[in-house]
Specification:
The chain is mainly beta. Helices cover about 0% and strands about 50% of the residues. The protein contains no helices and 10 strands.
Length: about 120
């Protein structure tokens, strides 16, 4: 059974930083591309970043040059380092399977950016 458990969300000030973590289990992690998606209040799901099995990465324009995705296959984990946070980054962030956020996802971790 696929299980994805996110952590690391919280409250940050504009310009601040947070790092999200996702612990994966129930599937062959190293063989899967992984990604992060988010849902802001009143909006649809946005796929913000992906990383494939060769560690090639993808970023949405909204987070490019501010967010960094990485993976640790030995720990079955994927991370999202978020810098220079903006109020528009406020959302529920999900860890997802597949490069384009199309696979299974976790319950999410809330990120709120506010002064």
């Amino acid at each position: 059974q696929v299980q994805l458990v996110e952590s690391g969300g919280g409250l940050a000030q504009p310009g601040g930083s947070l790092t999200l973590s996702c612990a994966a289990s129930g599937f062959t992690f190293y063989a899967f591309a992984m990604s992060w998606a988010r849902r802001a209040p009143g909006k649809g799901i946005e796929c913000v970043s992906g990383i494939n099995v060769g560690s090639v990465t993808y970023y949405a324009d909204s987070v490019k040059d501010r967010f960094t995705i990485s993976r640790d296959n030995a720990r079955n984990s994927v991370f999202l380092e978020m810098n220079n946070l903006k109020p528009d980054d406020t959302a529920l962030y999900y860890c997802t399977q597949n490069y384009d956020c199309s696979g299974a996802r976790g319950q999410g971790t809330q990120v709120t950016v506010s002064s």
